[in-house]
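Assemble and predict.
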Amino acid sequence: MDRRKAARTITIEALTRVEGEGGLSVRLSDGAIEDVQLRIYEPPRFFEAFLRGRPLREVPDIVARICGICPVAYQMTAVHAIERALGAAITPEIRRLRRLLYCGEWIESHGLHMHLLHAPDFFNLPSGIALAEQHPEAVTRGLRLKKQGNRLLEVLGGRAIHPVNVAVGGFYRAPKLEQFAELVPDFEWGLEAAIEATRWAAGFTFPEFTQNYELVSLSHPDEYPMNEGRIVSSRGLSIEVDDYDREFAEVHAAHSTALQSERLPARTPYLVGPLARVGLNLDRLSPKARRLADEVGIEWPSQNMFHSIVARGLELTHAFEEALEILRAASQARPSRVPLVDRDGEGCAATEAPRGLIFHRYRVRADGTVAEANIIPPTSQNQRQIEADLRGFLPTVLNGDDEAAALECEKLIRNYDPCISCSTHFLKLQVERT
Amino acid sequence: MATRPRLAVFKFASCDGCQLSLLDAEDELLEFAGAVEIAYFLEATSAIAPGPYDIGLVEGSITTAHDAQRIQDIRAQCRTLITIGACATSGGIQALRNWADTDEFLQAVYASPQYISTLATSTAIADHVRVDFELRGCPINQFQLLEVVGALLQGRTPRVARHAVCLDCKRNGTVCVAVAQGLACLGPITQSGCGALCPGCDRGCYGCFGPALQANPRSLSDQYLATGHGPAQLLPLLRNYNAAATAFREESERIERLAGAGD
């Protein structure tokens, strides 16, 4: 019997090794794809609603709680947007420390995803723990890499998950420089270990699956994008962050508690995240990361989403190299935060979360409270692209049985390091064939 | 060799941060994974084994009718049920909806609110099922988590301090930010667990670990009200990540009434 035409429904109970829980439904008829829906049913938590009326100074603490894996991305985007609403300008020292904090989060998040969540796919293993039984040196390296990111977040932010030291205007307390010096030897190890991890990932076997992505990221003339820059794309877009709403829109699909983003005016999907950032900012990678990019045997910009683990490795390397530079050259930030004058205002900002571009807009009032908040996380921007990828990818895996096809779809989705908690519980992969 | 205890990790409305704390125990993770059988932990492994489980860790709060049913099924599957974090033990930041019009919230966030099903409240796991141990924090302290699971494995009572953050500042040699800087700090009424991080960063404690044992929030806020802090400052301070924890909730509602009477 031809399996491709069989009328049956297959359900995989949970898509795993992603942050948060959601689902995927694929409906096939006579072997043809009728519908692909990435369903996000993480229950809504209404951050944008309850931020209204809250003191603007607590926004960095509150928005951190959107995501335990990338709280710094939310904090950074919020403080930049609110500072713009207040017309406050930070000092170069604060700006460097914010980049350092972001390096900590990239290290923690990329180190976790590469080693514990994603790499097991390339060995057909269920988890990083199972991988540790076969390749203990790789997983131990991954854990130690990730730990360095967390240590940096603790030194600068107070703690790794939901840092307490980030303030609108800067930091509550200036870091202790002697603690920076203590981190240097481990970060020197980390830089070399990140290069090794990238080479390890580059040696995996990648499916030949290329798409015609519109890559979207921030871009800055002389640094790898983190906290600021113009929004650019591989199709020639180059806009100020203020014009985000003119080029991108959020729509609400029935199968999702996350709003999906699309490019205007054609309403097309687009790609954010490490693969897009590396593709658009190759020459702004740190020297060792830039040389490594040439060495790994991938032509950048890559249009193969399975290369994202290598892109993460390059960014991990970059984050260690840049963090080392800042750690070694740090001077005391005085004051640790700039004074703020409350006023009526509106401001937006975009930064680069580990998973891609994140956009916030706030309207604030002269009484120091938030009037309105709008938050667009990376995973909701990638959601349409994930669905489009699956439409392109499914025909290549439908020759196998349904269970195998579903597993391959999970792997494709994992390339995105989707953060479903961010975008608004149970990622359920359901293939329906009629 | 005896079979290893079977561990399951479940998620409800939350940020994922508390279960991440387990993966963040970098030095202990592999040893931990050797001491238990990780039978269900979606964020960490694709290998999913059916219940029953010896230990269930629950992150997140109940915000949908579906989840209210799911926690009943999970309770039936778990011999020992431990809630981890502010969401699971008090409803989390999303419990702010308990004081608001949830329909209005929906319309504020979603263009097509008819696609969303949600309850009007966010509630703690213990409001729905019996809970054997509650581990506080936003996020939890990973060492406390390892202590609780380790104690269970050894069949002893977990040692988790219930004193106030205030005492930790004294131990750390941190000068009191409430006395010396006049900041409104929840340290005197908040449970220990974070290491008194915020006062160490020159800011007041904002209550991540919820009310300490024998906390007296009324006395504290009366003191702050008498020294120039207004309800507009105290209300959001008490009403955040553990807004629905009884001692914080009652005090925030008293402040709200005071503010209303002053209008």
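Chain B has two domains: 6-154, 165-262.
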